[in-house]
Amino acid sequence: MATGKQKHGEMSRLEEENPAAADKESSLREQMKRKLASAAGRDLYRMRKAIVEPVFGQIKEWRGFRRFSLRGLEKVRGEWKLVCLTHNLLKLYRSGCVLEAC
Fold first, then answer.
1. In a 3-state reduction of DSSP, which class is residue 63?
2. Which sequence spans correspond to the domains of the chain?
3. CB-based contact 63:82 (threshold 8 Å)
4. Which of 35, 72, 74, 78 is the most buried (most CB within 10 A)?
5. Which of 9, 35, 10 is nearest to 22 (CA)?
6. Which of 47, 54, 51, 42 is nearest to 15 (CA)?
7. Buried/exposed code over 74-95 (b: 16+ C-beta within 10 A; e: otherwise)
8. pTM for the complete prediction?
9. Four-CA torsion 30, 31, 37, 38, nearest 10 degrees
10. Run of H or E including 5
11. Which pLDDT tens digit goes with each residue over 28-62?
């Protein structure tokens, strides 16, 4: 959950306070801010940009996939599997693993 904007390298006032001092009366947003202010929370939040999100950007930019052509959950799932399959096959082909033994 995004809790607000913050410039790079800027400390929030919650990082200066004790993150473990969250009480039950504070809002969910305030609790999330405190959780993200802890060292473990910062490490987890930092990893989100390295885990999955680049793949969606690559599919949108390189494949030009912006919307589904079919309707219905089952058909959309099939179309998404096809898009992911072509994305992964192209990555394998470009790496050279298809032509050589990996």
1. coil
2. 13-51, 54-95
3. no
4. 35
5. 35
6. 42
7. eeeeeeeeeeeeebeeeeeeee
8. 0.47
9. 160
10. none
11. 888 888 888 888 888 888 777 666 677 888 888 88
Kindly report the number of other CB atoms within 10 A of residue 34's CB atom. 21
**How far apart, in whole angstroms, are the C-alpha atoms of residue 86 and residue 93?**
10
Alpha-carbon gap, residue 55 to 48, rounded angstroms = 12
| Residue appearing with tokens 């693993």 | 97
Angle, alpha carbons 41-45-47 (nearest 5°)? 120
Q: What is the pLDDT of residues 16-34, one digit of tens each?
A: 455 455 466 678 888 888 8
| Residue tagged 């394998």 (tokens) | 92
Q: At 64, list the tokens.
A: 């030009």
